[in-house]
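Can anyone check this?
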Amino acid sequence: MRYQISGRQIDIGEALQTHVKAELGEVVEKYAQRPTDAVIVFSRSAHEYVCESVIHLSTGLTAQAKGHATEIYAAFESCREKMDKQLRRYKRRIRNHHNTRTAPVEFAEGSSYILAPTEEPEDDTDDLTQPIVIAEMETKIPSVTVGEAVMMLELGGQKMLVFRNEGHGGVNVVYRRDDGNIGWIDPRNSK
């Protein structure tokens, strides 16, 4: 597994890097036999240290965790515990669903845009100006089952995930609702 350990305006010493590789490697190997790479970033937020980690698995899934503490090693331990919990749930869910996926998840390319918010016109005219595109980038859309999409949503700590449904090939969306439940939008079923 490839590690990328860095600090934002913090000097990361060799001892911390060795500790991170040993501890995180142990957790990942315990639950995910085929990790590809891990990105760990340490930063400082006021009086706390923050450790953010992202692990990419060969199945195409990504697990993210974040830990806070007043000591840098404690911040990493908090992050490691959260990652351990996520990977344990992931492995349990795969075992419970008897997932027979042998090939990695396929990804399609898609465009992603970030739009600037529209401002109200200062006078009373109905000026229907278009929002300004401030960022355009490529994104990957996975081709997975609904259960795997929900798992990717939870592992990635995202609020919404667009995916191609393996059942019928249509584009679907899963999202986290305000009440904490997961919503699923399948335009094919709206007929």
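Reply from J.R.: I decoded it. The radius of gyration is 20 Å.
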